[in-house]
Amino acid sequence: MAKSNKFGFAPVEPDAPRRRERSVGPMGAAVREAAESLTDATDAKVEKRRQNAKDAEAFRAAQDEGRVLIALELSQISADDLPRDRMDLDAVASSDEMEELKASIRERGQKEPIEVYPGPDGSYQLKKGWRRFTALSQLMAETGDARFGTITARIERGDDGRLARYIDMVEENVVREDLTFAEMAQVVITAAQDGGVGEPDPDALVARLYGSLHKMKKSYIRSFIFLLSQLGDVLPFPKAISRNLGVDVARAFKTQDAAEALRAKLQECQTPEEQNKVLAEFVEASKGMPQAQKKKLEPREKFEFHVGSLKVTARRGECRIVSKDDFAAIPKPLLERAIKAFEDELRGGPSVKPL
Question: Where is this region: Disordered (predicted)?
Fold first, then answer.
């Protein structure tokens, strides 16, 4: 007890403070719930924006890598920039297989996308899927149904280059074994003549276009390249030539006289059977040639030599000159005179004054 003061009473001790209890009223509860709800909504919106940004970034990456499929109008697509990997496209377009593909698309729709790339004029150019593109084009022309007027496509966004586009074009059909050796050889010949590819030697281009094939198949393709380079303009049905027959004909091709006779016979053929019979007879005739004569007529496949700073590679049907000079910068009349002098000297023609 506290000590008394002089007045005889002790100081009054205050009671312990009591905490006032407040219960949340209806209005306060409503405000609190609204605040909590607003906080949750804000957090959800922030997370949603973050996820949307992440999805947009993933979509742009997929679009840049050509993994996004879109619907294009057929009129937006052209097929004239990249040569096709099939011979006789008109026959393919009117074949029974094309009718079967059209029937499938009519019933079940387009199941596999085509692949396109931006062309020089801003339109889309067809890279893969010529048969699907042709089937839909025919269905649209025949029925007028709007559902056949669009095609599902994958767009190449990067600049893959001409050679990569050739490889992509043939890759699908090669994997499916849908191309003949004559068609594969023709692709190589066409690509070698395409300045954008940068490889004028068809034999060297085989390994780049058909790198995934077995080396024996590449050898077969080279045989057909030789065959088409020698007889392509008089072969009425190159796709009908079997692998073994084509290889045998290329191996038996010996003399210019025999070649001219063979060309004359091929120009008279009206059916694939007639063509292949003529080629088979040519192979058989070469087997009856004396061995000494065969050896004498057997040409070297390839040889190289140097003239000054020029490297010259010679093979049947081709003479390749490699130099550090920029031949494109040489005036055309001067280059023509040089080539004319070379040809005259080669053919034993009139002498040409030195340049």
Answer: 1-50
